[in-house]
């Protein structure tokens, strides 16, 4: 029997996986159960398109069994199983997801809800087990095979015996060490808790044998113990549950289970609407930017279910671009199951839902800004730029909606402030909302152009993001106050400063200015006496609408 080696990168990945990806060991069970559920879903999917297969939902299940004596934990499913090749390909290469390939090949159409797609979950088993054995019989095959591995050293595959189609995974649970207790993964009560916590909404029954103690018939004090098969999960999806039954942890678990992200969401939004259009939705505002967020690959969208059955993985029509960071799902009984993607786009109900959701997200963000400032700032660090793009894009169509959510660093407060806060602090005589652009707060602090405005006691908003000035140009005003760059020609406050000396300064220095202009002829348009400088000898200003910072960006743009 030949021991095959994991691919080199697999070895490294496996190590990383076992030691660092997951913070909680207990999630190995969630991973194996979600694979089992995927496998049953695949069978269900095949049955939909193949009349010779019947799918009787009731005869499909996942079973978790403990054999304490042999330190074995067994997870059995009645799913589609794996052939020899599949065992090799799907379990022999880490980060290769058979489920993702299945999804791509069978272009998601009808009801199934396949969770897997990253190809790493299975290996979580090695966090608790020394040996992992997989015995599987694939649909349509007479032969069963056994895959076995002790971790990074590789795996073996040999012919085996199995009566029915499906998969059996046997974990040889590690011995306790001084620091770590592994016995808990052989404890029925503990396992039940883990299943409840992470896999409660799995749509197939997860069964366990539990010992029931009962009074012996006819006896008052004699008990008998019986093994009884019990279904552990409620099979009710979380979005159908009452908000009052759910804890923040439930929502976080769902987020992790669904792989919406690897962070902990900043906020969840649970919507149940029973009006003109009926739907349930669970939405999340992530904390961290997904690694591909600002790339072409990133696909926005929410999972769309029709009456509990997944019909689309990423329904992009449900989210505007400026909220593309929102994750989650929508389930509506008012959507027909067989609508094609094209038809979906015109679905009136869907449009209503999208509008509704959009409003809700906006108001939740506003609440966050108002009531949970720190969280909002955390969120804004990650996704503020997207909101600013939102203000700028579509010719400013959404600016009214979004402007209240923007924040910028304030020269005076030394922290992020909203426009509302800025405006509420403006002295009566202040005409404009001032801003200054630069690479960093430090750099802007040192800009000579900020001197006069700061000295006046006015607050300046610092723009360090390329998009900032473009977004502000689109807004033009906030609550009737115009935005003004500190480097624009007219600051609206110079008039009362130094007014008298200017004329004489101009004549006195005429020759000097002419000389400077001559030297800088290709770099500046004019050299003038400035009324805005305090301690700096010189500064640059712009004439028209485009500021120096914008000019830099425009020049750097391709084409
Ligand atoms: P993912 O679920 O993200 O695809 P996993 O590492 O959890 O990645 O699993 C890898 C692959 O192994 C799955 O995509 C699937 O093809 C296969 N697999 C794992 N467990 C089972 C199972 N119980 N029944 C059938 N196939 C399975
Ligand atoms: Mg998986």
UniProtKB/TrEMBL annotation:
Where does the record place it?
Answer: Cytoplasm
Asked if the Swiss-Prot or TrEMBL record annotates the protein with the keyword Chaperone, the reply is yes
In which domain of life is the source organism classified? Answer: Bacteria
Stretches for region A: 1-341
Gene3D superfamilies found in the cross-reference section: 3.30.230.80, 3.40.50.11260, Heat shock protein 90, C-terminal domain (1.20.120.790), Histidine kinase-like ATPase, C-terminal domain (3.30.565.10)
Q: Which keywords does this Swiss-Prot/TrEMBL entry list?
A: ATP-binding, Chaperone, Coiled coil, Cytoplasm, Nucleotide-binding, Stress response
Q: Where are the transmembrane segments?
A: none
Segments forming a coiled coil: 354-382
Instruction: Give the signal peptide, or none.
Output: none
Q: Read off the PROSITE patterns from this record.
A: HSP90
Note the Pfam families from the entry. HATPase_c_3, HSP90
Q: Does the keyword Lipoprotein apply?
A: no
State the oligomer form and interacting partners.
Homodimer.
Into which family does the record put it? Belongs to the heat shock protein 90 family.
**What functional role does this protein have?**
Molecular chaperone. Has ATPase activity.
- Name by which UniProt lists this protein: Chaperone protein HtpG
Q: What is the lineage of its organism?
A: Bacteria, Bacillati, Bacillota, Bacilli, Bacillales
**Gene encoding the protein:** htpG
């Amino acid at each position: 029997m030949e021991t095959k080696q994991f691919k080199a990168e697999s070895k490294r990945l496996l190590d990383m996986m076992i030691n660092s990806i997951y913070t909680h060991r207990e999630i190995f069970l969630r991973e194996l159960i979600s694979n089992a559920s995927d496998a049953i879903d695949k069978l269900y999917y095949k049955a939909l398109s193949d009349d010779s297969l019947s799918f009787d939902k009731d005869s499909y299940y996942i079973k978790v069994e403990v054999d304490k004596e042999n330190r074995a934990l067994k997870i059995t499913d009645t799913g589609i199983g794996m052939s020899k090749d599949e065992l090799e390909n799907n379990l022999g290469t880490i980060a290769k997801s058979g489920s993702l390939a299945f999804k791509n090949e069978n272009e998601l159409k009808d009801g199934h809800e396949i969770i897997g797609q990253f190809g790493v979950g299975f290996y979580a088993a090695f966090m608790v087990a020394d040996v992992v054995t997989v015995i599987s019989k694939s649909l349509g095959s007479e032969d069963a095979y056994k895959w076995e591995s002790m971790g990074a050293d590789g795996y073996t595959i040999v012919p085996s015996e199995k009566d029915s189609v499906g998969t059996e995974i046997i974990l040889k649970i590690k011995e306790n060490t001084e620091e770590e207790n592994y016995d808990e993964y052989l404890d029925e009560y503990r396992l039940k808790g883990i299943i409840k916590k992470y896999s409660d909404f799995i749509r197939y029954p997860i069964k366990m044998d539990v010992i029931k103690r009962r009074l012996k018939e006819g006896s008052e004090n004699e008990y008998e113990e019986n093994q009884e098969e019990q279904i552990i999960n409620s099979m009710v999806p979380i979005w159908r549950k009452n908000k009052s039954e759910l804890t923040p942890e439930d929502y976080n678990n769902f987020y992790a289970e669904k792989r919406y992200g690897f962070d902990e969401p900043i906020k969840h939004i649970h919507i149940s609407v029973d009006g003109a259009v009926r739907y349930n939705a669970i939405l999340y505002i992530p904390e961290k930017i997904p690694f591909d967020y600002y790339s072409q690959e990133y696909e926005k969208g929410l999972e769309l279910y029709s009456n509990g059955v997944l019909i689309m993985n990423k329904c992009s029509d449900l989210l505007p671009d400026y909220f593309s960071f929102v994750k989650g799902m929508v389930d509506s009984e008012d959507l027909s199951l067989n609508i094609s993607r094209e038809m979906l786009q015109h679905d009136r109900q869907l449009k209503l839902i999208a509008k509704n959701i959009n409003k809700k997200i906006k108001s939740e963000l506003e609440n966050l800004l108002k009531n949970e400032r720190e969280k909002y700032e955390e969120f804004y660090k990650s996704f503020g730029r997207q909101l600013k793009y939102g203000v700028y894009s579509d010719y400013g169509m959404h600016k009214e909606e979004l402007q209240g959510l923007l924040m910028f660093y304030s020269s005076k407060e030394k922290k992020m402030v909203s426009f509302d806060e800025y405006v509420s602090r403006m002295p009566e005589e202040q005409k404009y909302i001032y801003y200054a652009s630069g690479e960093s707060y430090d750099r802007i602090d040192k800009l000579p152009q900020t001197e006069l405005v700061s000295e006046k006691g006015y607050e300046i908003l610092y723009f360090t993001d390329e998009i900032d000035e473009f977004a502000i140009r689109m807004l033009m005003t906030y609550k009737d106050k115009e935005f003004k760059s500190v480097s624009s020609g007219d600051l609206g406050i110079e008039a009362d400063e130094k007014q008298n000396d200017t004329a004489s300064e101009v004549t006195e220095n005429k020759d000097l200015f002419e000389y400077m202009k001559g030297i800088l002829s290709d770099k500046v348009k004019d050299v003038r006496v400035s009324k805005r400088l305090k301690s700096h000898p010189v500064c640059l200003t712009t004439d028209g609408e485009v500021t120096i910072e914008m000019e830099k960006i425009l020049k750097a743009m391709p084409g």
